[in-house]
Amino acid sequence: MRNRNIVADHLSAVMAMLGPAPNRYADPGAWDRLHAEIGIRLPVDYQVLVDAYAPVQLNGHLYLRHPATERWNLGREIRDSVRVRSEVEWDGLDPDEDPRLLFGLEKLSFGNPQGLWPIAGTDRGETVFLVAAGTAAPWLLVEDGEERWARYDMGFAEWLHRYLIGEDMGGPNSSVYYPGPVRLCRLPMTVDDRPEPWSGPDRGM
Fold first, then answer.
1. What DSSP string describes 77-143?
2. What InterPro entries does the database record attribute to this sequence (predicted)?
3. pTM of the full predicted structure?
């Protein structure tokens, strides 16, 4: 129960900072189709946040996509990222840059039950990967775009909470802190749409 309470606390904290949830595209069927396609189930806290706000950009950098939309589609982004990452030759990494050696991974693979799953990214080149998907204690790896990796033994809601309050959540010296309300931006859904920025409530920061 303690772990569930921790997840709930961070999820509540994030949603309090982001404000009322539009839930524009919430669709259980879209998640069922995505999970059937990729062969794993993504964590509940992640699904809740994506349903509540995505497709969205947070604080000018972090992007969350949604499985029910044509544009900014989460399933397509996962497939494309897995394909690109799977084509990279990962042998020959320096020991201090090899996540297999740093974090005890048997191998560096993407898009399979034992592999890494890209679930979020930033315009700074960072990618957030889910590891040990479908287990009781999934965790996260973040790659900074230059093959430097950081491990976070926590769920997505906790990672996002810490990201939004300005902690280093993409490795050393990676913090992105903006005082005041969190800045959100609805992403354009057609070629004629424009981004729609708005702000969360005051958070005393």
1. HHHHHHHHHHTS--TT--GGG-HHHHH--S---BSSTTSBEEEEEETTS-EEEEESTTSSS-EEEEE
2. Knr4/Smi1-like_sf
3. 0.93
- The residue written with tokens 């201090």 in the block is 96
* Fold exhibited by the domain 2-88+100-199: SMI1/KNR4-like (3.40.1580)
Closest CA to 46 of 64, 71, 27: 64
pLDDT digits (tens, 9 = 90+) for 12-52: 999 999 999 999 999 999 999 999 999 999 999 999 999 99
Strands 62-64 and 127-131, by their bridges, are unpaired
